Amino acid sequence: MFLVALSHSGPRWDFGRPMEGQSRWAEHASYMDRLVDDGVIVLGGPLDELRVVLVMEAESELAVRELLGRDPWSETHLRIDGIDAWTIRLDGRGRPPHGGGGHRS
């Protein structure tokens, strides 16, 4: 698992437009959706106006770079700021939420 930090620092990012209004949005969104459908992107989304974080399952950092390099926004809208291997030890996804207001037993 890899934690990937990206930023909207590419030369074609228009800070006057929302994410969905950026050039090539449909192609980027379609590519990201495919990575989700393939189980590569586990979680992802913007942190703020500049930064995006992805949790990706891949064989290596090189594989992450290759996959993100195929994104239509690669280097034009988004740039990779960092890729860190991440050992997941706690994972509550897929568990039913704890109901009620009491303590866990």
UniProtKB/TrEMBL annotation:
InterPro entries listed in its UniProt record: Dimeric_a/b-barrel
Protein name: YCII-related domain-containing protein
